[in-house]
Design a protein that fits this description.
The protein is mainly alpha-helical. The protein has 15 helices and no strands. The protein has helices at residues 19-32, 37-54, 57-73, 77-94, 97-113, 117-134, 137-153, 157-174, 177-193, 197-214, 217-233, 237-254, 257-273, 277-293, 300-309.
Length: 310
């Protein structure tokens, strides 16, 4: 049997590997996704190569989903859209409804990240129809969370909160602590936008507490960014800078590129409040360059507006 690990391709005489071995690599990719997307992508590509050689079409579909999520996180959005559409097409042919729903969710995530809200809603609705039909409780929690994000983007804050609370309830019934932490982060971020700062801090700190214990680096990056915004709101600007720098550290470690753009913007704002003008210029320039590199065309006008106001 082939050996799971970095050097499996070195053995030219490897025999056909088992489905379980390919699934194990995919599980490794899933486990490490929140810590290191580069390694998660490498493992997903390894699984895809094996699935093709061993003729395991379902594992190919799973690998496409894992790769698509990695491309989404590291900001390679065109690649993400392409590979996730491959996942959807193959899953549909195989009648692999769970993988198809996962792919639709991931594709919706890509579209919401690049502010194509209508397309995101379309993908989430397709996922939701599959999830309802098959009663996939774990995916239900994800889609509730993502629908909350849609309504947050549309500034339907009360509706967004309802979705996030439902997501928390669903994850707790399932015993999904990670899913619950994500929903709590989103709830805290939502309260922050509504100006309900005490509630915001409570939920954000709960998300950070779980992420620290479970080493969820990407969620830490997002949560510390929200905490940095909280300290801006209460005018503790040096504390804000410290939390945002922590956020940036985790985002860079995990290769979560799109959140880095938002962190740079917040760092520019916080430095403006303490009159460190060179830092303001530096972080706005970093935000603009990275947004341009990632083709985040919807956020570039926002950066121009921020700079103009400055």
């Amino acid at each position: 049997m082939c050996t799971i690990g970095v050097d499996f391709m070195a053995n030219e005489d490897y025999q056909k590997c088992s489905v379980e071995e390919v699934d194990q690599i995919l599980e490794q990719a899933l486990d490490i996704e929140q810590t290191n997307t580069v390694e998660a992508l490498r493992l997903s590509e390894q699984a895809l190569s094996l699935a093709k050689k061993c003729d395991y079409p379902l594992q190919r579909a799973k690998a496409y989903v894992r790769m698509g999520r990695c491309y989404w996180i590291n900001g390679t959005f065109d690649e993400a859209i392409n590979i996730l559409n491959q996942a959807i097409n193959l899953s549909s042919i195989l009648d692999a409804s769970y993988e198809e729903a996962e792919a639709y969710i991931a594709l919706g995530n890509v579209y919401i990240t690049i502010n194509l809200v209508d397309q995101a809603i379309n993908q989430y609705n397709k996922a939701y129809a599959i999830i309802n039909e098959h009663n996939y409780l774990t995916l239900e929690a994800k889609i509730l969370n993502n629908m909350g994000t849609i309504h947050e983007e549309l500034e339907n804050y009360d509706t967004a909160l309802d979705y996030y609370r439902n997501s928390i309830d669903t994850t707790q019934k399932k015993g999904d602590e990670y899913g619950s932490a994500i929903a709590k982060f989103n709830t805290g971020n939502m309260y922050l936008k509504m100006g309900k700062l005490d509630q915001a801090k409570t939920y954000i700190l709960e998300a950070i507490d779980f992420s620290e214990k479970d080493n969820k680096i990407i969620l830490l990056a997002h949560s510390y960014q929200a905490l940095g915004k909280y300290y801006q709101e209460i005018k503790q600007y040096q504390e804000s800078i410290e939390k945002l720098e922590l956020s940036l550290k985790h985002a860079q470690a995990s290769k979560d590129m799109s959140i880095q753009v938002l962190i740079y913007i917040e760092l520019a704002r916080s430095h403006e409040y303490v009159n460190k003008l060179d830092c303001v210029h530096k972080y706005f320039n970093k935000a603009y360059k990275l947004a341009k590199d990632l083709k985040m065309i919807e956020i570039i006008p926002r950066i121009h507006e921020e700079v103009a106001l400055f």
